[in-house]
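Much of the work behind modern protein science is quiet bookkeeping, done one molecule at a time. The protein below has been through that process, and both of its lines are reproduced in full.
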Amino acid sequence: MKYLIDFAALALLYGLIFFGKWRAKGKDILLVNTLMYIYLSFVLYFTLMPVIISIPFVFNHPYKPMNLVPFIDVTARRGDFFRQVVLNILMTIPFGFLFPLARNRTGKFIKTVFFCFLMSLGIELLQPLIHGSRSSDVTDLITNVTGGMLGYGFYVIFKPVTFWILDHLKSR
């Protein structure tokens, strides 16, 4: 139930603001931007939600500063470090693939990596603020950016097929 409020807000935002704007630009733009919106909604779900019901309690717990020692969990073999590294990489592969497409197919590598870094940094800084039990870690930042870079590699590899599909959709 606590997630329902956030998803309702995201659905309203999409329906009232983005859907009509993107639909007017063509089916290809609507498809890519909607996929990016859905992807980002899931990233919010796994990293920050519930947000709206947490806002009144943001300052009711101490803020844990970011761990700035890269891969300390890996070297100290704490917790399920391998799973965390793999999941953080997998989480941002779609960003690296979809971001250049959402930028009217002109996304550059540096811009994609930079915005992937900003998204990841925002998540890492907000996690302990919104949820007192969550912490932020520079390893997550590094692995998220690595995932974005891999996603961009997939974008480059599949660019001809992707553009063919989007051009075919656009011509309909």
